[in-house]
Design goal:
The protein is mainly alpha-helical. It contains seven helices and no strands. The chain is 66% helix and 0% strand. Helix 1 packs across helix 2, helix 1 crosses helix 3 and helix 5 packs antiparallel against helix 6. The longest helix is centred in the last third of the chain and has 23 residues. The termini are far apart.
């Protein structure tokens, strides 16, 4: 099997392979399958996202934080770790080693940012600079 590189074609293959795993996953699958009504369209959007992130193409025009906030009640930090684990397995399996590492590093930073946006809050009655991080995030 020839390993993929970080180019539009390789990212397209990666996104398709990865989300096939996500859709079949016992924990992630129900959440994603319930949230996505048009998988071909969504896979195209995700390929555009990764193209924008890794190749700076600017093709992705969405807003990831509001898209994920719609499903906040179903998402936990543990599910982010599960997603990252599947991402690592998939990138290791089909991408060149340097490409896999770069994609894994970027995904981890994106997951951290999304978790901060989704679960971090500042209470109005706390002194300035003191954050209230819910237990489920602090433990992750």
């Amino acid at each position: 099997m020839e390993l993929e590189r970080i180019d539009d074609e390789g990212l397209g293959h990666l996104v398709e392979a990865f989300y096939a795993r996500v859709r079949a996953d016992e924990e992630l699958g129900p959440i994603f399958n319930d949230a996505i009504s048009d998988w071909p369209e969504h896979l195209g959007k995700l390929t555009d996202f990764w193209s924008s992130v890794m190749l700076t193409t600017g093709r992705y025009k969405g807003q990831p934080v509001p898209a994920h906030m719609k499903h906040r009640s179903k998402i936990t930090p543990a599910l982010f770790e599960r997603w990252l684990g599947l991402w690592a397995e998939t990138t290791d399996a089909i991408m060149e080693p340097a490409a896999a590492r770069a994609l894994q590093d970027k995904a981890r930073r994106i997951a951290q940012s999304l978790q901060l946006a989704m679960f971090f809050r500042i209470d109005a009655d706390q002194p300035a600079g003191r954050a209230n991080i819910p237990e489920r995030v602090a433990a992750s």
